[in-house]
Amino acid sequence: MKTKPELPWEIDMKPYRYAYLIRRCSLILGSILMLSVVSCSGTQPLQTSTPTPFSTQPPTPAHTAEATSTPKPGLYVVIDTDMAPDDWMAILYLLHRTDVDVRAIAVTGAGEAHCDAGVRNALGLIALAHHAPIPVACGPETPLQGNHTFPQSWRDFVDGLAGQKLAPSVNPGAGIGAVKLLTQTILSSPGKVTLLTLGPLTDIALALQATPTLVNQIAGVYVMGGAVKVPGNLNGNVAGNTAAEWNIYIDPHAANVVFASGLPVTLVGLDATREAPLTMGFLQRLATNQKTSTTAFIYAVLSQMQDSIRSGTYFFWDPLAAGILSDNSLATYEQYPICVVETDDGPESGRTVAKDGCPQIRVAVSVDAKRFEQVFLDTLNNQSVPQAINPSALKGTWSGTSHNGNTGMQVTVTFGGNCETGIPCGTFNIATLPCSGDYVFIRMTADGQYEFAEINKQGVCGYGQDFFQTQADGTLLFKSVGDYGIDSGFLKKTTP
Question: Is 347 exposed, middle or buried (0-12, 13-18, 19+ CB in 10 A)?
Fold first, then answer.
């Protein structure tokens, strides 16, 4: 009998083992007892167009025009968004980046989109980008404090996806809330996570309050929000307030929680975005430069916003924040001690103020708008062809014992023939729990492991991702990383 070695990734996961055992026992006990859950600018919506169908055919391979940055295969990103049109562009941009690994999308219900529509639309964007399934979940629909909201007409516009229709991706995060999704994703990530926030900071603040140790697994936070040395953009929608920017204004207390968390925060606010207007010139370039279904979708959306674009009041808010996250050289920065005014009403409510004694924040103050625009368009017009698995590499049924600490579980997995990114092509069954479901292939990792998402789960299942790697002796190394820590073991092929 083969003695199970202590695998390299187990060394760092020992603190999770006791929590894992408690969790599993409580879940099983629970089962027994059961036998006896418009854009950051606030641009007003224009009349919608007829719904536009978008192609689901795989586009051409990716090529980006980054002149001063190198690929970052370890850049793990979690997006927190309020799902307005500029959010859609930012999300699609990152989904097309081959050097960015988007691990989850949290929708802040306190922002522009309502929860059901926001989640549905996010899943549609994932499918539109021909990306492997990503878990999506929504958070509370009210701020941590106060009652600030976006105008209802804007919320209706973004809920309706500007009149466009997208088929949704499957959702590995179905059934959980945004705070739990954020926590599980950050803790189970192969490396430290970079957060990109594109709306009010409610979800992030709640996650940090519930689990303060998350800061140890977060590399930094890029916040689209605030106006430090420039006027705000409430634009008469809040009487007398000319200082605040919408994302921070909606939940000032949440912003202060995140700023004071000790995390490295980069503020991509109106100080920077005012240098990156989205112009009619760009829209005209886009009209004649649509090489993917993604650029066709963005053109259809922006075509409805031409009044704002012509007036010079529409900017690359969220896309610029995503661009700076992927390439810091797109901007220059200054350090400021930043706090947010938390008064419920009045001309200062939600204002980002630079004053002594506040947390130090890196603020983007100028940008290379021309280069950003080119990188943005190039990225959206090119995407990697879906990665395929060698049909013979995993095909068949594999069984064995997986271990987490001293706990062993019987695992059986079955894979069909060829697997492609985003396509269901396998099943799993953990008889000990019990837990079963289907696999969707995500990617081949840099060290040769096949990564799968778990979907359609039944039984006492946690949340995680599974990895497989063929061994020289004919066995299959199995690793499951999730909110339960790490399960690992060697499986043998039982059926060809």
Answer: middle
Distant-in-sequence, close-in-space partners of 336: CB < 8 Å, separation ≥ 6: 228, 354, 360, 361, 363
Whether the link from the prior residue into 434 is cis, omega within 30° of 0, is yes
**Could you tell me the mean pLDDT of each successive run of 10 residues in the chain, 496 residues long?**
31 33 38 37 40 41 30 74 98 93 96 97 94 95 95 95 92 95 95 96 98 97 97 92 96 98 97 97 93 93 95 97 94 97 91 97 96 93 58 86 88 86 85 90 73 85 83 89 81 91
Strand order in the sheet with 136-138: 136-138, 100-107, 75-81, 193-197, 218-224, 265-268, 360-367, 331-340, 352-354
Does residue 336 contact residue 228 with C-beta atoms inside 8 Å? yes
- Provide the CATH number for the domain formed by 387-495 in this structure: 2.40.128
257, two tokens: 């929680």
Alpha carbons 174 and 146: distance in angstroms, whole number: 29
**SS3 (DSSP) at 176:** coil
CATH superfamily, domain at 75-380: Ribonucleoside hydrolase-like (3.90.245.10)
Task: Enumerate residues 6+ apart whose C-beta is below 8 A from 168.
Answer: 120, 123, 124, 126, 127
Cα–Cα distance measured from residue 233 to residue 350, given in angstroms and rounded to the nearest whole number = 11
Element (H, E) at 296: helix 293-302
Q: Alpha-carbon distance 464 to 479, whole Å?
A: 10
75-380 and 387-495 in the same fold = no
Alpha carbon 414 to its chain's center: 29
Pairing status of strand 331-340 against strand 265-268: unpaired
Query: What is the rounded CA–CA span in Å between residue 324 and residue 330?
Result: 6
- What is the H or E stretch that residue 77 is in? strand 75-81
Residues listed for the chain:
496
Question: Could you tell me where the beta strands, DSSP code E, fall in 298-406?
Answer: 331-340, 352-354, 360-367, 396-404
Tokens of 487: 């399960």
Residue type (1 letter), 377: L
Residues paired with residue 194 on neighbouring β-strands, in sequence order: 77, 220
Domain boundaries of the chain, sorted by first residue: 75-380, 387-495
| Distance from the Cα of residue 434 to its chain's centroid | 30
CB 369 within 8 A of CB 276: yes
